[in-house]
Design a protein that fits this description.
The complex is a heterodimer of chains A (932) and B (145).
Chain A lengths: L2 H27 L6 H22 L1 H19 L4 H19 L3 H19 L8 H44 L3 E6 L4 E4 L1 H7 L3 H4 L4 H4 L6 H14 L1 E9 L5 E12 L5 E10 L1 H23 L3 E6 L5 E4 L1 H7 L3 H4 L4 H4 L4 H14 L1 E10 L5 E13 L2 E10 L1 H41 L3 E6 L4 E5 L1 H7 L3 H4 L4 H4 L4 H14 L1 E10 L5 E13 L2 E10 L1 H37 L3 E6 L4 E4 L1 H6 L19 H17 L3 E9 L5 E12 L5 E10 L1 H60 L5 H32 L5 E4 H15 L5 E5 L4 E4 L1 H18 L6 E7 L7 E6 L31 H11 L4 E6 L3 E7 L1
Parallel strand pairs in A: 22-24
Antiparallel strand pairs in A: 1-2, 1-5, 3-4, 4-5, 6-7, 6-10, 8-9, 9-10, 11-12, 11-15, 13-14, 14-15, 16-17, 16-20, 18-19, 19-20, 21-23, 24-25, 25-27, 26-27
Helix pairs in contact in A: 1-2, 1-3, 1-4, 2-3, 3-5, 4-6, 5-6, 24-25, 25-28, 26-27, 27-28
Chain B lengths: L5 E4 L3 H13 L6 E4 L2 H9 L15 E4 L8 H10 L8 E5 L4 H9 L4 E4 L4 H18 L6
Helix pairs in contact in B: 1-5, 2-3
Classes of the chains: A alpha+beta (932), B alpha/beta (145).
Chain lengths: 932, 145
Amino acid sequence: MNITQRNTTYITLGFQFAAMLIFLLGRIFTHAFDDLNLVGTGIAFIIYGGLLFAFWRGWEYARHVSVVMMTLLIAIILPEPFVTIYAPFLILLGPILALALAEPPWVIGSAVLTIAILLWRAGGEGVYASPITLIIYAMLITGLIVSRLIAETAYNQVKQAKAQIEYQASVLNHLNDAVIAVDGQFHITVWNRAAETLYGWTADEVLGHVSTEIIRSSMATAEREKVLKQLAEFGEYRSELIQYKKDGTPLYVEANTISFLDKARKFTGLLSVNRDIGERKRAEKALEHSEERFIKAFHSSPVAMTITEVKAGRIIDVNLAWSQLFGCSREEALDKTSVELGVTVPETRQKIMQEIETKGFVRNIETIVKNRDGEDHSVLLSMEGISINDEPCVVTTMIDITDRKQAEEEVLKLNTELEQRVTERTGQLRESEEKFSKAFLASPAAVSIASLPDDRYINVNEALAQLTGYSREELIGRTTAELKLVDDAAREKIFEAIRKYGSARNVEIQIHTKSNGIAEVLTSIEQIDIGGRPCTLSVNYEITERKRAEAEVQRLNDDLKERQVALSHANGLLQTLMDNMPDHIYFKDRDSRFIQNSKSQALMMGVHDPSEVIGRTDFDFFPKDHAQRSYNEEQSLIKSEQLILDIEEEVLWPDGRITWVSTTKLPLRNAQAQVTGTFGISRDITERKQAEKDIQKLNEDLKQRAAQLEISNQELESFSYSVSHDLRAPLRSIDGFSHAILEDYGEQLPAEARSYLDRVRNAAQRMAELIDDLLNLSRISRSTLQTSLIDLSLIVGEITDTLQKSYSEREITFSLQPGLMVEGDPRLLKIALENLLNNAWKFTSKKEQALIEFGKLEETEEQAFYIRDNGAGFNMAYVDKLFAVFQRLHAINDYPGTGVGLAIVQRIIKIHGGRIWAEGEEGKGATFYFTL
Amino acid sequence: MTEKMILLVEDNPDDEALTLRALKKNNISNQVVIVRDGAEALDFLFCSGEYAARDIYDLPQLVLLDLNLPKVDGMEILRRIRENETTRLLPVVILTSSKEEQDILMGYKLGANSYVRKPVDFEKFVEAVRQLGLYWLVLNEGPLK
């Protein structure tokens, strides 16, 4: 199915769909919905029916069936009276479908069926009874059929024309010549397959393009004009010219062009049939060349040549050598016969002509010819029959052998004499020579006879040929120097021996073979005399293999020596290691027998010389269970390669010593990687073990102490607890009841008694303070550090603010260095700073202009802070007592206090890992420094 | 029992005398019931032992509780008071010699309403008692009526 048919089919289905739609709309507008189901079924029936046929019988069949079904459906389902209401619908749809789709039989068939149904339905009377209606309907149907037939005819014509064109195109494409047509404007209209192949352009690329743009040729424009003119005149033109392919390759083309002219003899196009004649052109050229060559060869040949036609025997051509030989110029000779020229002896001519007639050629016949001066010349004559322009001819060549002939005759004469002499001598020699010759040739030793002094081979045997790689023929007649068989030096050496002693025996020389190899040869040479000429007889045995074997043995020996040296070196290293290594090293065979031991181990085993241990086992030296364990380990190591790595064990040595060792055992392998035994290294780790034990003991001690410390800390805590409770209760009683006495009976007591009771109360209260301070101190000692980054300056500021608020009547200058940051426990440091500042406050209480400073020392490496006052100060002699508990450097009445404050400060600084010290001078002030 | 009874839990007779003296000096005339060990304190509060006949709902206005006590210590008494539904809301002031941090924390953790340390100086003690009386017996509106 081509594209047009497919489109037609789509249109058919589309129309069917549209028709149903129109039909439906018509029903909707006439409010007749009652048989809508029937309509739906009809649509589906047509669509699916069409598709079914399409698959079953192909589209061609399907659309025909669809048209018939369509028509039938319309005819059956339309309500009555339908011609009047739906006539436009029928008139539109029917023709279009029929024209577009169906073939005549189908149209006629469907039309007949429709009429039949109409008539059947008209049986129910109505409008169909009217003859006019029927006539109109019949006319419609007839119109359809006629239009369809016309369309069909037109379609067939087009189809035929197309087939014709396709046929022509197919013919064109099967031509071997390029067929190219152009229109009046030289646009290409035909470009067959051969043209594609010839020019390399495809039809798609060239059709519609101007031909001269596509096919470039060697033709000049002027020439082209001329061609066109000729075409116009004669209607055709034939030419050979060079054109170019798409890729620029030149082509020899023979072009046959015909022109088309209209009635007014106006040019309307060209048709050109072009053939590639490159092959022909080349053949022609080649022929021309060979002819030329032949002529040159003919004339310049040193051999006298003639070409003669056979029938009349006339000479067609002669060459220069012929002219010279016969003393006759070419011009004289042409068109004459050899007889006319008088250059042939008639009987020889007869003989030759007979031969050439029977065989067709003559080869090297010796014959006599005469030149124009009447001199006889002996020539070697050859003839060959050829055909020139279908005429049988003969080429004759003649080589002048007159001089040679004379010489030969003389030589022949001498030879005959010589031969006689030789025959006699030969008879004598033959017997011995035969023997010698056989022995010579068959000898497995390479034997040669060479002349002296040039050392040219007179004869050699096959063995020498094999040895040297040259054939006997190549060797005989050539010197060893020419063949470069032997180095000059070697040859000289041999010849010197021959000169001195007449022979050389078993000299080793190297022979360079034909294939550039070297054969080692043992040669013996004897000077002999052959036919009075000094010669050499040399016998050579090849010893290349022997030499090679010797060299190999030498190499192996050297190798072995090297290895022995290396081995003894390695052994030396191993021995040094074994003698000096503090660790115990031992090698054992597969049965766990010692092979070698380090000296250190041998000594421990109670043996002075390690070799005494060889062949013995652990069972000879160690307790049975130890030896058995060791044996088991080694056997499983050998069998399953269960490696022993750093196993720590206790060893009881023969002398009763006990040590700890760390042992590693590995398989011992030979060069083939087979396990031949085991080896082990044991390191004495007794000291480490001892150290570990010590550490463990220390650890345990430490734990004990820590536990004790814990206990004493707990005790201290409960002690402090009871102190705070139980020590204070009596004090309260003392103070309370003293107060009760003073209050209740004060008036009855003398003044002194009241003063005593006051002292009792003071003492009780002071003791309470001391207890509180002591508890504070102990609490601080027990506290753990909880550090963070804190601003000391800020804390100092807070404390001095509080002090100033509580004692606003005092005039004090505070000097604070701001932003001093430190890592520490904020709660503890605040307590320490409070104590220091309280002290400064207290001891400046008698100054009018009190000054308290807080800052950081600049020039120290570690961060050192200080609190300085200009108060009472202290005597540096007592500086040691400053930080001791309950130590006071001032009278309690001057400056109250328990003497615990600085002890607390020192404790806090120490907990931080810092230190505290003080400087002072009585009456001038004190400075407390601390680091953290 | 008319109103505003104070329960003093105190084993030391000296302290008992001094406390009563301080109350008297501050003109606090409420009835003061004295129990001398922890077990007796529990008997009184939960009406067992020799106090079995007591009305369990006749609760004191304020409990002054020492910590170091024979038999059952102060913390245990406090725990039992707070555990029991009847006495759960009873105001308890710990009055003791200790100012150990752990005691103070534990006291408050178990629900003490105040923690007061007995000063050695009797005049200060009188002042402390005065303030306690003023606050807990006069100013403070207790949960129990």
